[in-house]
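residues and backbone:
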Amino acid sequence: MIAWSRVVIVTWAALVSAGPASAQTVSDVECLLASNLYSRAGKDDQVRKLAEANKYYYLGRVSARLSAQQIRAQMLAGSKTLSRANAGKVMDACNKRMRNAAAEVEAAGRQVAPHKK
């Protein structure tokens, strides 16, 4: 009985600390905005290509979770917080999140791929 109580408490704490889904999607929208900016105005081809990959990644995340009205509202809010001063840091954080997600998918794929004999 005591062990079950701990599981419930730990699960509840994890859910509360994770924050609401809308908070995560605001970050996704900010990443979409930053990626769009760098895919057009990046200093070199490599930066623009990386930003383009990020843009499509975050476009998929945003469009899967939000309605058009929610996207519009969060874009307006995100455009007020994204500036030249913080765009690089935002883009770096967004790129890191995308790379981590890609690594997780690749790891899962290796686990389910048939092993060569």
